[in-house]
Amino acid sequence: MTLGERLLCNLTGLGLFTAVGWSLLGFFPALLKRRLLAALSFAYLLGLSTLCSASWAVNHVLGIPLRRPLFLFLGAILLLAGWVARRMTSRSTAPESAPAWSLPAKVMGGAAATLASIVIGGMLLGTISLVTRDFDGQMTWTVAARYVRAAGAVDPPVLRERRWFVTHPRYPLLIPLSQVVTQEVFGAPNDDDRAVRWIYAFFYPVYLGVLFDGVRRRCGNLVGALVALVFVFIPLPAFGESGGASGTMSDFPLACFLGAAVLLLTERRLTASGSLAGGVFLASALLTKNEGGPLALAAIVAALLPRGVRAIRARAQGRSVGTLPWKAVACLVLPVLCAAALSISWRTGIVNRYDEGYEQMRGVSRIVKATIARAPLLPGPMWEEMRRPQDWGGFWLIIPFSLLFGLPGLLRGRARGLLLMVAGGVAVYVVAYGNTPWGEAELVHPTWSRFLLQLSMPGLTLLAFALRHCLLNVRRVVVPALTSWSRRRAPPGPASPSPAASRPRCPGP
Amino acid sequence: MKRPSRIAAVAGFLGLLAPAVFVASEVRDSLAASHRRLQRFSRRGTDLYGRALARHRGAEYVARLQGITRVLAPQEPYLILESTPDDFDSYFVRFDLAPRPAVWLGRLGESPEDLLGRLASLEPGIHWVIVASLRPPGPELLSREQAAEDLRSTR
User: Fold this and answer.
1) Which of A117, A229, A500, B113 is the most exposed place for a label (fewest CB within 10 A)?
2) Residue A56: which of A142, A153, A150, A143 has the closest Cα?
3) What is the pLDDT of residue A499?
4) In what order do the strands lie in the sheet with B78-82?
């Protein structure tokens, strides 16, 4: 394909998913109210997730071939449904008010936006010039997309039948399907993957949009911009081909789906609309990677457990507030259950082979014993991975100081759900390391950095809480000191600022 | 609101310093990485797929691959034989030949008797064997008979 054709094909995919998602925002007033950047980011995730999972379900259940007419038909249906929902909700949905941008926040935001644009530009140009080079992308993901597209089915014989040499045939297909949708709608040939690489690369600005929105709502614009700036300079997400947005692996899309869900579900109020969006993103995580299932479960626990505990405490103290919003809980769980049913039904038709076979893990005591036996072997190799400059730069050597100095900020009520999510995610990985057929800690090297990336959005939001705590402490000392200094230096005059006007203000919504 | 102690303020300052140090230490590398991609795009962005693949795998590999795809129909199956005892060249060759389905024959390091036994019994309807290799000159296409002959000669 020529450069122009590749550009057009990539833009077709991006445009299709964003348009479908933008329309579907009508079903999610909680997302529709967000700022443009955040709304566009959620739209991309929503469009890709719904169009691809609907295609998966329709093909698997009804056997309708995965060809252009099906994708266009489903796209049109989703666009129409979203349009109708928007017509019904537009009058009741006013855009949310946002905290004002202070001068430091404007400077930090400007720096983050400029540098992120340079990094994103470099990444997009790089991905459209280079063929697929990452190991897992060639071994599993993109090759699965080629089999699926050739057969026009999510369960072609080459995946289902034992005789064919296919590694990890049961790996979830959501992201390979996004390639198939794009190639089919554009009419691109099967071999040149550069025509669909922006589907993966676009998750990077989407991640930034969702992260900034989530942090801004919790900790204010300045901290939001600072955390976004830190993320931009971690090498792995932008330029790492093994797991980052420059490759064709499903780890970074999973990080986006999971992160978006967790940030929505750990907001102060759990609304039905936010829960439904969170549930759809968790369902997408489940359909994106094997570990998406256990991570979705951990996210549900992280969202509901602190609220449940609060409700029980409130009841014990005789307060009337504090029941769980059951409608919101149902909206959260239902999409995940539907995705789990689709995944199980699809998997049962496929003979598993050339795979670690985690599904065969049986017996809680055996799993726990194996995990405990291997756990002491893991920290060393994990730290080796975190010190790799090509993946993390100096992130793990420098940034933990912020977490340490801002520790009280992490122990606040609003951060508890995020802490639970990170702890639950790490527990999932440690159990996998403990029970893998790979020897001792061998699996750590190819996977640990990718796992950290999957949990990075809740992790960076925790960093935001720590930075907010640091910022408040500095402000409360520096601002009064500066004010009194300026008062001493100012010539005596009639107009002096009132104490209320000079009081330092906390950042935050 | 209670004013924090000076120690807390210093800790806060250090906590804010850490991201600044991180950003300062990474900015050069990140911008250089972006610049490298821009340069690569300006030099190679217009490459057609064969040329782009040749930059990655080598010209001889791509020539061999194109020879194979001229013989093998777009969805014709083949038997795949790994050329190395430990590596996974077969993954990459399989990727380049997809969606043609592959049947695993074995590794060249295995005993020829075992490989010959499998070659005789596996999927009689498949006519071709591909010896997967990323090293020059790349993968090799053999008929079943040729592959059997080659294996017998290595006994």
Assistant:
1) A500
2) A153
3) 44
4) B102-107, B78-82, B128-132, B140-143
Q: Is the dihedral of CA A117, A118, A122, A125 positive or negative?
A: positive
The arithmetic mean of pLDDT across residues B57-85, rounded, is 95
User: Which residues of chain B have a CB within 8 Å of the CB of A192?
Assistant: 49
Asked if A168 and A182 touch (Cβ cutoff 8 Å), the reply is: no
Residue ranges per domain, chain B?
59-153
**Within a 13 Å sphere around the CA of B57, how many CA atoms are in the beta-carbon half?**
28
* Confidence bin at A494 (pLDDT 50/70/90): low
Question: Which residues are within 8 A (CB) of A499 and not within 5 positions of it... i.e. 6 or more apart?
Answer: none
The CA distance from A39 to A393, in Å, is: 31
Collect all residues of chain A within an 8 Å Cβ-Cβ radius of residue B76: none
Determine whether the interchain pair A158/B99 forms a contact, defined as Cβ–Cβ distance below 8 Å: yes
Residue B74 phi, psi (nearest 5): -55, -25
- Beta strand pairing status for B128-132 and B140-143? antiparallel
Instruction: Report how far residue A143's alpha carbon sits from residue A165's, in angstroms, rounded to the nearest whole number.
Output: 12
Number of H helices, E strands in chain B: 6, 4
Chain A: residue whose CA lies nearest to B50: A192
Q: Could you report the predicted ipTM of this complex, rounded to two decimals?
A: 0.94
The helix/strand/coil state of A90 is coil
Contact state of A235 with B33 under an 8 Å Cβ cutoff: yes
Share the mean pLDDT of chain B: 93
Which band of pLDDT confidence, cut at 50, 70 and 90, is reported for residue A500? Answer: very low
Strand pairing category for B78-82 and B128-132: parallel
Burial A247-264 (b: 16+ CB within 10 A, else e): bbbbbbbbbbbbbbbbbb
Chosen from A142, A351, A405 to mutate, greatest number of chain B CBs within 10 A:
A405
- The pLDDT tens digits of the residues spanning A210-253 come to 999 999 999 999 999 999 999 999 999 999 988 999 999 999 99
Q: How far apart are the first and last CA of chain A?
A: 48
Contact B27, A114 (CB under 8 A): no
Rounded to a whole number, what is the distance in Å from the CA of B81 to chain A's nearest CA?
A: 11
Q: Report the C-alpha gap between A253 and A288 in whole angstroms.
A: 8
pLDDT band at A505 (very low <50, low <70, confident <90, very high): very low
What one-character-per-residue DSSP string does A376-392 give?
GGSHHHHHHHHT-HHHH
Interface of A with B in 182-211 (CB under 8 A): 190-192, 194
**Coil/strand/helix, residue B73:** coil
CA gyration radius, chain B: 27
Chain B CB within 8 Å of residue A161 CB = no
Question: Residue A34 has what DSSP assignment?
Answer: S
Cα–Cα dist A300/A404, whole Å: 27
**Least CB–CB distance from A125: residue in B3, B37, B90:** B37
Helices (H), B45-143: 49-57, 59-71, 89-97, 112-121
For residue A99, whether the previous peptide bond is cis, meaning omega lies within 30 degrees of 0, is no
Distance CA A427, CA A432 (A): 9
- Residue A478 sits at the chain B interface (C-beta within 8 Å): yes
Asked if A402 and B123 come within 8 Å (Cβ–Cβ), the reply is no
Q: Is A63 exposed, middle or buried (0-12, 13-18, 19+ CB in 10 A)?
A: exposed
Structure tokens at B71: 């013989």
How many Å apart are CA A19 and CA A79, to the nearest integer? 8
Answer yes or no: is pLDDT of A92 > 70: no
